Here is the input.
Amino acid sequence: MSTDEEQRKRSTCISCHLNIQGISATRIILWLVAITIVSFVIGFGILALAGGFPPSADHPLTPFRNNALLTPNTTIIPLDGATSGDVRLTLGAGDLTLQGGAPDAALMEATVFTEAGIWQPNLALGANASQKSVVITEKGHAGKAWFAVDSPNRWEIRLSDTIPIRLDENVGAGDNTLSLGTLNLETLAVHTGAGDTTVDLSGYHGGRFDGTIKTGVGDLTLRIPRTSNTRIQVHQGIGDITENGFIRHDDTFVTPGFNTSIAVNQITLNQGVGSITLETV
Amino acid sequence: MLQTEAEYIRILKSRLEGTLPADELADILSDYSEHFRMGKANGRLEEELFRSLGSPEDVAREIRATHFVNKAESNKSCGNLLHAIGATLGLGLFNLVFVLVPFILLVVLLLVVFIFGIVFTVFGPAAGIYAILQILGIPAFAIWQSPLAGIFFSLGITTFGLLLVIGDYFLARFFYRVGIRYLKWNIGVIKGTECVA
Here is the structure.
């Protein structure tokens, strides 16, 4: 048999009689066509059920988000001469990270990672005497995140380290991480519906404050400076409490050297379902 | 200016040596010698025969082109096709337009389809991983409006990419067959002169 004949036979074998365990090339192609059509039909069907289809101004005819990777949208809120701040944050679904380090002369630097119009939060500003108030609200959405259109949402908030702040913060579903060590708090209210919460007051040297932390479903970690004069009242739900470095009296935990005759930071914990970890640092 | 039949055959032989197999070359030269012999027997002059056949250089080019096209037809490969196209281009400058341009356009088309196929085939699984990470709640990977739909779209994109690659293969085979026919037609049109069977 000549080389040409061998090559011709080999070519014919590959192109016309491709058999992988009895499956012909034609059958493979038909399967691929069927899978492609069914996949796209199911995909667009889910989009239709989730409200992302038919297309609208917010959701053009694409299964992808308006902007594929989240682009930050940063807003800086100036102090405008205020000597105290009142900050209220409501995030329906998403992750919230809050810490100090806002630029000079700014009460807040808010970076919101979302592009869809329906996920842009409402911003309300107010001023009362020497106090500046900021209310940022995002009501979230109905349905589970993995069905929903444009579900993940992330906020990164920086607050002023220089003025006393009343902080009221509410996350419906998502992780809630607060690093408050550099802030100067007057009051602290934290409420997490579902998700993990971390409140870190390491290095806190601000003024005395009263705090309330409520958790729905999820774990809570609270870090308090060992040298602070802090009392934590825990209303236990379902879950364990782990403490490290506190002195415990029933449901009350105090820092070492706790003294009621001087200013006391009072924190009330309302636990839903999940573990609580209390640490002195 | 050609003087003799022997000179004609010598030039033809020198132009075809190294291209055609020896036996095939011998057959062709024998055919041309026979053509001269028959022509003379019929009372035709050598000059007249030279004119009717065309110059030995042109005849050699046509024989080369026909040989390479036949070879590309019987033994399909990119190399043989390129040889056939190269030999056909040598038949006339106008073939730059009628052969080379369509060939380049077809190659670009096949290449674009292939690249798209590969991109879709690779992008599909990657986008599927992003959908899974989005379901797990990692915002940085949120590229889908709905991550669950994204998993199905990823699957569809992957299979569509595979179909493009496979389709490109069959498209290339189709263009190959059509291309060979076109080259044969092109050579036939150019051979306006008397030819030896």
